[in-house]
């Protein structure tokens, strides 16, 4: 019997296309089954296997309709059983199978893309700029990435075959002459010929009851260059500090000589006043007390003016104290004077200013300095045995300059009138950015 022998040509072509589409669905279903088995997603096979069987039967049915002559008993059975099925139902079933297959293919692709495999781990390790070497002592390399292989070639001139030997060469500094080994902190740093710097770190882990060593190399070129620049700047600042210290000592020496000269000029003027006082003493009867004061003043002035020139000391404290003694002022120190800068220079300037005020304004001959510490501050109290000022003290050029110097070093200066006249200076033990 011939089936559909009067079927129009257009419908015959449509059946041929549908048959090819059904065959494509069958092949796709077979491929999806293989991929699902590879991904061990056996539950999805419950859905795809019936679809593959359905696609197969539809393909056979359409092929029987297309050729119009069932060449096998199976084809005759399909034609007899499904001749009443409408074309729309067949097309709908085929489209449903196609949609399900597309969704399954998409799921397989996403699963494959996000699945971690040995190759994906290897690619992830090779990409970072950090050198990674994993080896077992006395054994071959377990894992090496591109950055570590490149570092080995640049430092030893050979390929990385034995990780244990390569790590030993890095530890001992047995590398090419154009490379050098330095230490920043406790970690060794390898500087290559092109100027790039690598920090080397090694650690040991336990894997499956075996000791495994991991060698890591980090590119720290920017940090290394900044460290070199900071070291250079520190050396320049140290040299500058030494030069400034010498200049500071010279300034103190010149200031001392100027003060001594001013004192000599003042005493020379006082000698004239003393001569007039002697004349008045001769012409007018004076008491013995005035006589003793006149003799003491003459004796002090003559000794200072006739004193021999001594080589000045280079220490600021010694210069100031020597000058004070020449002026007839005894400097008594209770405590330890600070030796660090700028505290030493500030205390020296304060001694100089207080000696000047003791001699000029208080008319005393003794300056007392008491040095104590209160927490992180150095406290210096200056007192004298002269006449205390009456009323509020007005700070002139000397005290105003001293206050500005102290505040510039993050310190403080106070003038206390009770229970006695005290100039108190408070300075921090450590001053930031001080030379």
How many strands, which pairing sense, and closed or not: the largest β-sheet? 6 strands, antiparallel
Taking all residues together, what is the mean pLDDT? 76
What is the annotated CATH architecture of the largest domain?
2-Layer Sandwich
Number of strands: 11
Unreliable residue stretches: 1-9
Number of domains: 4
What is the name of the CATH topology of the largest domain? Heat Shock Protein 90
Question: Radius of gyration over alpha carbons?
Answer: 51 Å
Number of helices: 12
- Report the top-level CATH class of the largest domain: Alpha Beta
Distance between the termini: 116 Å
| CATH homology group of the largest domain | Histidine kinase-like ATPase, C-terminal domain
User: In which range does the helix fraction lie?
Assistant: 55-70%
- How much of the sequence is in beta strands? 15-25%
- Give the SSE order as H and E letters: HHHHHEEHHEEEEHHHEHEEHEE
Shape: elongated
Quaternary structure: single chain
Question: Which strands sit side by side, in order, in the main sheet?
Answer: 2-1-6-5-4-3
Description of the structure:
This protein has 435 residues and is an alpha+beta fold. The chain has 4 domains: 9-114; 121-219, Beta-Lactamase, CATH 3.30.450; 226-312; 316-435, Heat Shock Protein 90, CATH 3.30.565. Helix content is 56%, strand content 17%. The protein contains 12 helices and 11 strands. The chain has helices at 9-38, 45-67, 73-82, 87-114, 118-126, 146-156, 163-172, 221-283, 288-306, 316-326, 343-360, 397-408, and strands at residues 131-135, 141-144, 180-184, 187-191, 197-207, 210-219, 330-334, 366-374, 377-384, 412-416, 422-428. The strands form 2 sheets. A 6-stranded antiparallel β-sheet has the order 2-1-6-5-4-3, with helices on both faces. A 5-stranded mixed β-sheet has the order 7-8-9-11-10, with helices on one face. The N and C termini lie far apart (116 Å). 19% of the residues are buried.
